[in-house]
Amino acid sequence: MPRFRPFMMLLLLLAGCASAKTHYYVLDAHAPNARHKADTSIIALQLSIPRYLDRSQLVSRTEGHELFIAENHQWAGSLHENMARVLADDLSGLLSCRVLPMPLHADLRADATLLVDIHRFERMADGHIRLEAVWHVLKHGQRLHAGALALDSEQAIAGNDYAGIANGMNRLLDRMARDIADRLERMHHPAH
């Protein structure tokens, strides 16, 4: 029996490693639902995110240029698609038009295109979540509006609080939608 003891200990160790539970997260829209806007103009949303974020695992920055990939804390689907859907839904709820993520259905035609290029969207080494992006509104190939933003979470979040990180990311995405909507409204309806 003693010669089987190391083998049994190895099996127990492997079973412990294999039983690590994976947690899944999604981002959700928070602006009022805009489904009733069927006859309004359409803005097509084209979103891009860095490749290092376009993965199933949550990504955080450690010191310097190092990234930490949380293997057991993952997005429930594509982060890129989830962000595009949430941003489109939030903007649709805030603006007088419908915003739809690209690609559009074949029977829909966009009146304008909103290009959003995310440069950074992760928990930083100091615990704050950072969202940096630039955006442009194009109509018939002409740039109508543009903006840039850099948003930080109000509170630092512990590196092992992945639910807190996902919630903080969701709040920043909502803030970005409000910032873009506010800028677009001011450009279309300047103060007299």
Task: Give an account of the 3D structure.
With 192 residues, this protein is of the alpha/beta class. It has one domain (25-188): Rossmann fold (3-Layer(aba) Sandwich). It is 30% helix and 32% strand. The chain has 3 helices and 8 strands; from the N terminus they run αββββαββββα. The protein has helices spanning 5-18, 79-94, 162-188, and strands at 23-25, 42-48, 57-61, 67-75, 98-101, 112-123, 129-139, 142-152. It has a 5-stranded mixed β-sheet, with helices on one face. The protein has a 3-stranded mixed β-sheet with strand order 1-4-3, with helices on one face. β3 (57-61) and β4 form a beta hairpin. The longest helix is centred in the C-terminal third of the chain and has 27 residues, at 162-188. The radius of gyration is 21 Å and the shape is elongated.
The total count of helices amounts to: 3
- Count all strands and give the number: 8
The strand line-up of the biggest sheet is: 5-2-6-7-8
Backbone CA Rg: 21 Å
Main sheet attributes: strand count, strand direction, barrel closure: 5 strands, mixed
Residue share in helix: 25-40%
Q: State the low-pLDDT regions, or none.
A: none
In CATH's first tier, which class applies? Answer: Alpha Beta
* CATH domain fold name: Rossmann fold
The SSE string, one letter per element, is HEEEEHEEEEH
How much of the sequence lies in strands comes to: 25-35%
When the domains are counted, the total is: 1
Coarse structural class: alpha/beta
The N- to C-terminal Cα distance equals 89 Å
The coarse overall form would be: elongated
Using the 3D structure, state the CATH architecture. 3-Layer(aba) Sandwich
CATH superfamily: ABC-type transport auxiliary lipoprotein component
* Mean residue pLDDT: 88
